[in-house]
Design a protein that fits this description.
The chain is of the alpha+beta class and 370 residues long. The chain is built from seven helices and eleven strands. The chain crosses the membrane at residues 28-52.
Length: 370
């Protein structure tokens, strides 16, 4: 008993008696060891976080592809029922086959409105008056303010973004935004009838796509801004950068304009003064020419450069927040990944439906020039 007291390695038993059972001393973490463990956990989390973010972005990109796939099928289902692809707008040119004023296009309903029944949005479609332009729609129903899930790419976070709630030119209407647009021309929006894309200002049968549906880009992604004055992403109206885009790749015979008609052959031409609007065009290149460009400096910082059009022509780049490119849909309904560094001549030929040229990279050979 005495040895037990001296060593203090025994515990009290019942009624104050001493037990000879030894007491085990538990080792504890020192402060240094605890800090080392915390540091290791932090390193592991920092290594894991990019992988988690990458997995999330991969899931968002797949969702975006699914949206485009559904839209492509809706366009083709419309064609199967109507015998032609939907019109991208309802405007008629005022200068033979060329639109001299893009405002004629901007006030009309888009191709998205026409395919609403084929994306399970019949109720929204019924709210539109097909005989009226976007400003002639019901002020009670305001169908243009409906947000469509199939039009939203989760990477862009366009949900809740509106265009024009305080703009007098749009009668204080609020237009919901989305992330998908139709290529109407490899050159400018106003040249859609001369150098046509898959969808232009009139319904086109698939037979007009003489280059082949598998070689023609029909739909692509666009980005939006939270700024209510920026029209990019508006799905219900035929606004450049909203529901329609063009490449701004000029024709070899008419690099800066001239008389053209629907019989003109398209030869993509690299204009040294104008950059083609390839995917995710950066501020150092040509900028989106839009109906309006509020706060262009901030738009540059957001990697969405823009300027206000001069009334005669518009164009906009396909854009996304996916790394390295944008999703697109061919005229046969298949998905295509367009990289940011895609050859501009190749892209121009894939947008034009009847250039009669192979879809290869690089400029035309001298023999092909007229």
């Amino acid at each position: 008993m005495r040895s037990c007291v001296r060593s203090r390695r025994c515990s009290a038993g019942p009624l104050g008696s001493r037990s000879l059972r030894p007491i085990s001393l538990r080792p504890a973490f020192t402060l240094v060891e605890l800090l080392v463990v915390i540091a290791i956990i932090g390193i592991l989390v920092s290594l894991l976080l990019p992988a988690v973010q990458s997995a999330r972005e991969a899931a968002r990109r797949i969702q975006c592809q699914n949206n485009l796939k559904n839209l492509g099928l809706a366009v083709l289902n419309y064609e199967n029922q109507a015998g032609a692809l939907p019109a991208a707008c309802e405007a008629e040119p005022d200068n033979d086959d060329l639109f001299s004023n893009v405002s004629l296009i901007e006030g009309t309903l888009s191709w998205v409105v026409r395919v609403l029944p084929f994306i399970e949005e019949q109720a929204v479609y019924d709210q539109f008056d097909p005989q009226a332009d976007v400003l002639g729609q019901s002020l009670d129903l305001r169908p243009e303010s409906n947000e469509l899930g199939v039009m939203l790419c989760p990477s862009d976070q366009a949900r809740g973004r509106l265009y024009g709630p305080t703009r007098r030119t749009f009668n204080n209407r609020a237009f919901a935004k989305g992330n998908y647009a139709a290529y109407v021309s490899p050159e400018h929006i106003n040249a859609m009838r001369i150098y046509p894309g898959a969808m232009i200002n009139e319904r086109q049968p698939l037979a007009r796509i003489t280059d082949g549906t598998t070689h023609t880009i029909m739909l692509t992604e666009v980005r939006t801004r939270e700024n209510a004055g920026d029209p990019r992403g508006v799905w219900s109206a035929a606004l450049c950068g909203g529901s329609i885009v063009s490449l701004d790749m000029h024709d070899a015979d008419h690099p800066i304009g001239g008389n053209r008609d629907r019989n003109s052959m398209y030869d993509p031409f690299e204009n040294p003064d104008i950059d083609a609007l390839t995917p995710n065009g950066r501020p150092t290149g040509n900028s989106d020419r839009l109906r309006a460009c509020p706060d262009p400096a901030l738009a540059d910082l957001e990697l969405m450069p823009c300027s206000t059009h001069n009334g005669t022509w518009t164009g906009a780049a396909p854009r996304s927040l996916h790394v390295g490119g944008v999703n697109a849909v061919r005229a046969d309904g298949s998905i295509l990944w367009m990289t940011d560094d895609i050859d501009k001549f190749l892209l121009a030929r894939m947008v034009c439906i009847n250039d009669g040229q192979p879809n290869t990279e690089g400029s035309l050979t001298p023999a092909r020039r007229r």
